[in-house]
């Protein structure tokens, strides 16, 4: 089981290149970065980590400071790619609905080429209604939108010019280079809470599931595998628990359940703070 990391990098934290070098030097498997384009101050969406829910029309409290200061993950990972040779790079997650898929396809393929095929695309549907609304995302249709945008990007990644026509967008058969190193696109993991809708998406167009933590993971594996087989997929989906605060027992549990990788959560902190945490986490390698 590969031991990788995830962290909210901001303009106030350790810089991506320094973190990536430190991870590779210590033998960690990878670096995955989340995404928020912006965080509207006026917000009624409750925080994903819990806290008070909106009531009586009142707004919920502001999110922790790093949420509104996150670096663009593609740019940050490009910096990481230039100073590493083995470290896996990925997103945890990319909010695909908030992007122009033609531009995003180019960014992903370029980054994957820069790092020699080490990139994993973590895909998320989002939780912040106000953030998505500023991107003109219709909330109840966001899953359909993401599904279609993945298909459009794969048309651009195809080895020959391939057209795609969908409900939300289309692309003509086009010359679109570079291509990702792996035919069809990089490894793709879908993030989200366990359930039949999420598992249907994983089985249809992904390589695996990126759950937040591992609560209920054991019980979720059977319906995940059932959905996978029902979609006619061979083998088994990858399972990569993310944002994990490690302990020996927890990591052993994930390994025994067949997780091929786990993303340990690093603090969104300064260089000394993050490096101290890496040295502490190194015992799990």
UniProtKB/TrEMBL annotation:
Keyword terms, alphabetized: Oxidoreductase
SUPFAM superfamilies membership: Bacterial luciferase-like (SSF51679)
Leading EC class: oxidoreductase
Classification via InterPro entries: Diverse_substr_monoxygenases, Lucif-like_OxRdtase_Rv2161c, Luciferase-like_dom, Luciferase-like_sf
Keyword Oxidoreductase carried by entry: yes
Molecular function per GO: oxidoreductase activity
Segments forming domain Luciferase-like: 18-243
CDD domains: Tetrahydromethanopterin_reductase
EC number: 1.-.-.-
Database matches in Pfam families: Bac_luciferase
UniProt protein name: TIGR03619 family F420-dependent LLM class oxidoreductase
């Amino acid at each position: 089981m590969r031991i990788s990391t995830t962290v909210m990098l901001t303009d106030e934290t350790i810089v991506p290149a320094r973190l990536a070098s430190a991870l590779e030097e210590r033998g960690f498997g990878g670096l995955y970065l989340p995404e928020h384009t912006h965080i509207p101050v006026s917000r009624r969406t409750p925080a994903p980590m819990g806290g008070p829910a909106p009531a009586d029309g009142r707004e919920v409290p502001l999110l922790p400071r790093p949420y509104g200061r996150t670096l663009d993950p593609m740019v940050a990972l490009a910096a990481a790619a230039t100073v590493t040779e083995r470290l896996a790079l990925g997103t945890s997650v990319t909010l695909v609905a908030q992007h122009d898929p033609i531009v995003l396809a180019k960014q992903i393929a370029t980054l994957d080429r820069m790092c020699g095929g080490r990139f994993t695309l973590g895909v998320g549907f989002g939780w912040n209604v106000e953030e998505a609304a500023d991107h003109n995302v219709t909330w109840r249709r966001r899953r359909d939108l993401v599904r279609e945008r993945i298909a459009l990007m794969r048309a651009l990644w195809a080895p020959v010019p391939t057209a795609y026509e969908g409900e939300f967008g289309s692309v003509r058969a086009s010359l679109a280079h570079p291509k990702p190193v792996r035919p069809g696109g990089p490894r793709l993991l879908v993030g989200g809470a366990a359930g039949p809708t999420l598992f249907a998406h994983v089985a249809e167009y992904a390589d695996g599931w990126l759950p937040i933590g591992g609560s209920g993971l054991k019980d979720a594996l059977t319906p995940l595998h059932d959905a996978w087989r029902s979609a006619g997929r061979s083998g088994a989906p990858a399972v990569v628990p993310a944002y994990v605060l490690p302990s020996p027992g927890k990591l052993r549990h994930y390994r025994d359940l067949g997780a091929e990788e786990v993303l340990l959560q690093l603090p969104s902190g300064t260089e000394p703070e993050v490096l101290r945490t890496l040295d502490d986490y190194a015992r799990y390698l």
